[in-house]
Amino acid sequence: MTTPPTAPLRVTLVNGSFEQPAVTNYEILPDASQTQAPKYVPGWRTTASDHMIELWHSGFNGVPAAEGAQFAELNANEVATLYQDLPTTPGSTLYWRLYHRGRLGQDTMALDIGAPGSPVEQRRFTDGNTAWGYYTGTYTVPEGQHTTRFAFRSVSAAGGNRGIGNFLDGIFFGTAPHLVLTKTAAPVGPLEVGDVITYRITAKNEGGGAAESLVLSDDIPEGTTYVPGSLRIVDGPNTGPKTDAQGDDQAYFDEETNRVVFHLGNGASAGQGGSLPNTETVPAGTTVEYRVVIDRSAGGSQISNAATVTYENRLGDTPEPLTATSNEQVTEVLPAADLNVTKSADATTVAVGQTVTYRITVRNTGPNQATGVVVSDELPYGLTFLSADSASGTYDPATGEWAVGDVPDGATATLVLRAKATEAGPLTNSATVTGNETEPDTSDNTDSVTICVEPAPSCCTPCATRE
Ligand SMILES: [Ca+2]
Ligand SMILES: [Ca+2]
Ligand SMILES: [Ca+2]
Questions:
Q1: 77 exposure class (CB count in 10 Å sphere: 0-12, 13-18, 19+)
Q2: What is the spatial distance between Cα 359 and Cα 236, in angstroms, rounded to a whole number?
Q3: pTM of this prediction?
Q4: E strand or H helix at 339, and its extent?
């Protein structure tokens, strides 16, 4: 595995939707500085002297949350600023979005962003009490600013009491999504032709905002064939096996382009990708799996490929399309040589005392050179060895082994073997070839031939010298 590309320093608000801690109706709770309190609001701090923050449960006094089940009222007991200080990288772009609503009528608040000592007003929001206003914007971190304050300041509220009003919810302030893909192969090579490789690809969002419309695709590596029915989401939303068909679940195998496609994240469907939160929310990200079988053509080579993901950053006004590529996963494949042997006899009917001539041919159909090739061809009872001729290697009549040696890809080697028939009857003789390399197809590694040995003529030339 290679080192994933560097992600910009993650920036995200904590508890941006005010979902923690859970409250009934409404509660005024200590802010995040009061960690000794049994119950406090994580993430947020207030400039109020009493350090108190007010959270409402959706529906209290007839006010629904804009997002989730809870929201905040800007001022609890006194006029104050609600803020978070975040570590930031100078020069990076931060996106913000928020929901704002009045309580008794038109309420106004300001958004201040900047160095903690001198945040700068970015915008003012005025909303009535019948609907949530929704706002988005960006902020570029200035040179030298390593901590940035993100603050809401109450400006005015209907009814004249600034301690009442300015509801807030669904706040995001942070960096764009940034996906990092890693691909692994199991088992680790070197492997043989015909072995199955299981690929796993993990997508993690190391950015701030959620990665939207997440679609992962992976070309089936050259030299391999997709194993049907092997698509699976191993971890993350929509975990489980997926069919090869398109349109029925979150993944498919595209035969035309020879690749696998996964729609990932929350809300992913057969038609589109979903949303992957950053690794603070989903530490393990999401992982998919599929399998391939190593083709014969890959013998003696390397199988390598990388997966790709496309997604969108939807924090800005218009969706920004983004892509990420995984590390190149390389698997070594041992050399393979498909050997076959054919055996024939010049004549299939002979008489006792006559010579039988066998021709044995070994062929290497590749993809790699065969080494240590041996053909085992032991003469059966009823045949006596006479001679063996070959341009490649030698035949040992004692063991019945023809040591052929190396046979290049596409080459053949032939042995002519002569024996004398000594017994009448059918005689079957076979030859079997083996080599050092992976043999992808053993079905053609043995061939046999049967000959008929007839009795010698009983009264030919009784007085002649016997041959
Ligand atoms: Ca909320
Ligand atoms: Ca499917
Ligand atoms: Ca073979």
A1: middle
A2: 62
A3: 0.79
A4: strand 337-345
C-alpha of residue 228 to centroid of ligand 2, in Å: 11
What local confidence, expressed as pLDDT, does residue 4 receive?
Answer: 41
Nearest to 376 by CA among 410, 412, 341, 420: 341
Mean pLDDT, rounded, for 422-444: 94
What is the Å distance from ligand 3's center to 444 Cα?
A: 5
Q: What spacing in Å lies between the alpha carbon of 192 and ligand 3's midpoint?
A: 15
User: How many CB atoms sit inside 10 A of residue 391's CB?
Assistant: 7
Average pLDDT rounded to a whole number, residues 80-99: 92
Q: Kindly state the tokens that stand for 416.
A: 């002519």
- Decide which of 267 and 13 is more confident: 267
Mean pLDDT, range 372-380, rounded to an integer: 95
- Note the pLDDT of residue 165: 85
Mean pLDDT confidence for 198-216? 96
Neighbours of ion ligand 2 (CB under 5 A): 242-243, 245, 248-249, 252
- Sequence length of the chain is 467
Which domains are delineated in the chain?
26-174 (2.60.120.260), 179-332 (2.60.40.740), 337-454 (2.60.40.1530)
The answer to whether the peptide bond before residue 462 is cis (omega within 30 degrees of 0) is no
